[in-house]
Amino acid sequence: MRTSICKIIDNPILFKQQLVCWGQQFREIAFLDSNSFSDEYSSFDCVLAVDAFTSIKTDYHNAFEDLKQYQQSTKDWLFGYLSYDLKNDVEHLKSENFDGLGFADLFFFQPKKIFQLKGNQLEILYLNMCDDEIEDDFREISVQNLDFSVHNSGIEIRQRISKEKYCQKVTKLLEHIHQGDLYEANFCLEFFAENTTLNPLEKFLKLNEISQAPFSVFLKNNKQFLLSASPERYLKKVGETLISQPIKGTSKRFVDPFEDEISKETLSQDPKEKAENIMITDLVRNDLSRTAQKATVEVKELCGIYSFLQVHQMISTVTAKMDPKYSPVDALKTTFPMGSMTGAPKFMTMKLIEEFEETKRGLYSGAVGYFTPTGDFDFNVVIRSILYNEERRYVSFSVGSAITSLSDPEKEFEECLLKAKAMREVLE
Q1: CA-based R_g, the chain, Å
Q2: CA neighbours closer than 13 Å in the CB half-sphere of residue 10
Q3: Residue 133 falls in the annotated catalytic set
Q4: How far apart (Å, rounded) are the C-alpha atoms in residues 347 and 350?
Q5: Of residues 28, 184, 190, 232, which has the active-site annotation?
Q6: What φ, ψ does residue 424 adopt, rounded to 5°?
Q7: DSSP at 338
Q8: pLDDT of the chain, 428 residues: tens digit per residue
Q9: How many CB atoms lie within 10 A of CB 190?
Q10: How far apart are alpha carbons 405 and 373 in whole angstroms?
Q11: Which residue in 54, 220, 243, 391 could disulfide with 236, CB within 3.0 to 4.6 Å?
C-alpha cells in the first residue's frame, strides 16, 4: 500500500524546519515534534503527514464507534484529534458553553505522504498512487527558504473570566470538595482575541523554540490550526502495552541555577502537588484497568520531576497489558478524557466543569496523535496550545489548574498565568 524509502539527513534540525515549511501547501497537515526529548517510549524525533487521501470528521454522536470502523477498515497510518467534548459520547453529558472556534469534535485523515525522522535517518512513506513524486518532493524540501515575512497585527489578548470572578468560582468549587462531591477538579479559563490575522507557522515555530516540548504539534485542517507545545503524553499503545503519563504539579523555572534547583526541590516535596498527582495517577490506573489483562496495571514511576524550558513538572507513568478482546479505539474511549484534565471522580467533575467554565473546551484538553497500520497509537494532551480559526479570525488559548481541598484561589490563578506565559509571549 505504501512505498518506503530511507535517506540520511546531514542537518536534522534544519531539515525539520524545512519539512514543516514545505508542508504548508497542503490542506491537511500534522507535524509532531519531540524536540530531541527521548525516553524509553519515544518512536521518532519528528513526523510530518500531509494531504488527505481519506478522512473522517464528525461531532460527538457515536464518534468513537465511527473512528473504530474507520481505523479497522483503513488499516493504515491515521493522524488527527479527539476533542474534549467527546466526553458527551462516553457519558451522558453536554457542552453548551460559548465556542468561538467551531472545530469538529473529531477529525482524522489518512495521509498520502509521511516523513519520519529519527536521528539523521529519514523514512519516507508514500501511498503507491503518488510514490513517483518522492524524489521531486525531497529536492523541494531541501531547498526550502525559512525566511518568511512576519505579520504582527498587534494582537490584543483578553481574558474570558476576570481574576475576581475566577477566585469566586474556585471558592465555590472548594465548597463542593469540602462537601465530598469530588476530590479534585481541573478548572480552566480562556484567553482570546477576535478579528485577528496571524501567520500560524511563524507563531508555531516561535512557540516551539521557547518551549521545546516533547509533544509539540502543528496541525492544520483547511482553515483551522492547532499550535501546541504540549509536555504531556495522554496514551500510547505499543503491541499489547498501554502507557499513560499524567502531569499534575507545576513550578517556575529560574535563570539562576541555585534558585531553579530550589524551585524543583520545592515541587518534589510539595504535599499539595503530590496529592494532586497521586489522585490522578490512581484515576488513570482505574481507567486503564477497564481494558487491561488482570493484574497488569502498574505504576512505573510516581511523581517524577522533569524540567522543560518554561516550567518544572511532576509526571507519573502508568502501564498496562491490554486484553486482546478490546480494539485500540476501545482503549481510548475507556480512558477519555484524560484524568489530568478533568479531576476525580471524573463524571462529577466534568459536570461541574461545564457549569463553572464559560467556554466550550473543544480541542483544548483533547488529544492529538496517530494510529499505525498495526493499530498502535500515540496521543498527547492538548495543553500549552494556541488554537486559531482563520475564517472566523478567532484565536484562543486556555490554561487550567487542579483545585483540591488545599487550594488557595489566588495561587491557582497565579499558576494559570504561569502556564499562559509562553502563548501570551508568542501572540503579543
Answers
A1: 21
A2: 1
A3: no
A4: 5
A5: 232
A6: -60, -45
A7: P
A8: 999 999 999 999 999 999 999 999 999 999 999 998 877 888 899 999 999 999 999 999 999 999 999 999 999 999 999 999 999 999 999 999 999 999 999 999 999 999 999 999 999 999 999 999 999 999 999 999 887 665 656 789 999 999 999 999 999 999 999 999 999 999 999 999 999 999 999 999 999 999 999 999 999 999 999 999 999 999 999 999 999 999 999 999 999 999 999 999 999 999 989 998 999 999 999 999 999 999 999 999 999 999 998 889 999 999 999 999 999 999 999 999 999 999 999 999 999 999 999 999 999 999 999 999 999 999 999 999 999 999 999 999 999 999 999 999 999 999 999 999 999 999 98
A9: 24
A10: 45
A11: 243
If we measure between CA atoms, which residue out of 140, 142, 73, 134 comes closest to residue 108? 73
Amino acid at 208: N
- Residue 250, phi then psi, degrees to nearest 5: -140, 140
- Asked about 248 being catalytic, the answer comes back as yes
Answer whether 255's CB lies under 8 Å from 314's CB: no
> By three-state DSSP, how is residue 86 classified?
helix
Q: How far apart are CA 94 and CA 201, in angstroms?
A: 33
What pTM value is reported for the model?
Answer: 0.96
Would you say the C-alpha torsion 423, 14, 81, 336 has a positive or negative sign? negative
Q: What would the grid cell of residue 64 be?
A: 468513537
Query: Is the distance from CB of 84 to CB of 114 less than 8 angstroms?
Result: no
Catalytic residue, chosen from 87, 113, 248, 419, is 248
List the beta bridge partners of residue 229: 216
Closest CA to 94 of 321, 272, 347: 347
